[in-house]
Design brief:
Blueprint (H helix, E strand, L loop, with lengths): L2 H38 L2 H8 L3 H7 L3 H17 L2 H4 L6 H12 L2 H13 L8 H23 L9 H21 L6 H14 L2
Helix pairs in contact: 1-2, 1-4, 1-7, 2-3, 6-10, 7-9, 8-9, 9-10
Length: 202
């Protein structure tokens, strides 16, 4: 084997181990935040959960804010299956319903996201800017989804731009209700009911 090939294989191996460790840290961070909230989640607690030193964790994420943003970006990556799917265009309503069903199978992820979303409304929270950008992107994408399915006017003669924030409110609001009372609240069924109402009214 050539020396360059050996070096390349070694580099690939290190990159793979680094990616695995980052994923392990992100999963541990999600669990700690779900238990304690962002402000109560320390780097030391995450490092202990992973089984490394805090200094070792800082090698991957230099600050707590870096770790938080990486976690939020990873959550969106898990949802979309990667950039290629994100660039494919707005998701049809039925595909969004499938995403809601998927979220119902992973309460820990939804709990962490909901806890961070609630905390982020404070002015100094490091995730505030991330969620602001995220909602702007989702509103724009969902507006196009509604326009593709219903045209320029929806029930009540409302434009898609006016309805998109309401659909998002249902999706996120149902998550809170489901987390508080999962036996009584069927999150996927509720979202499919919303879709049915929209379609029947047109």
């Amino acid at each position: 084997m050539r020396a360059t090939e050996q070096t390349g294989n070694a580099d690939n191996g290190r990159a793979g181990r680094r990616a695995d460790r980052r994923g392990e840290i992100l999963r541990a961070t999600m669990a700690v935040i779900a238990e304690r909230g962002y402000r109560g989640a320390s780097l030391a607690a995450v490092a202990e959960r992973v089984g490394i030193t805090q200094q070792g964790l800082l090698h991957y994420f230099p600050t707590k804010e870096d770790l938080l943003i990486a976690l939020l970006e990873a959550r969106d990556e898990w949802d979309t299956g990667g950039t290629a799917k994100q660039e494919a265009g707005p998701w049809p309503l039925d595909l969004l319903a499938t995403l809601v069903e998927y979220n119902a199978s992973r309460p820990g992820v939804v709990q962490t996201f909901s806890a961070l979303l609630g905390e982020s409304v404070t002015g100094d929270h490091p995730a505030r800017e991330f969620f602001g950008r995220r909602y702007a992107t989702i509103r724009a994408s969902l507006t196009e989804t509604l326009r593709q399915e219903f045209g320029d006017r929806l029930p009540g003669d409302l434009p898609p731009e006016a309805v998109a924030p309401l659909v998002i409110a249902v999706m996120d609001g149902m998550q809170f209700q489901w987390l508080l009372d999962p036996d009584e609240v069927d999150m996927p069924a509720a979202f499919r009911t919303l879709i049915r109402l929209l379609r029947q009214a047109t």
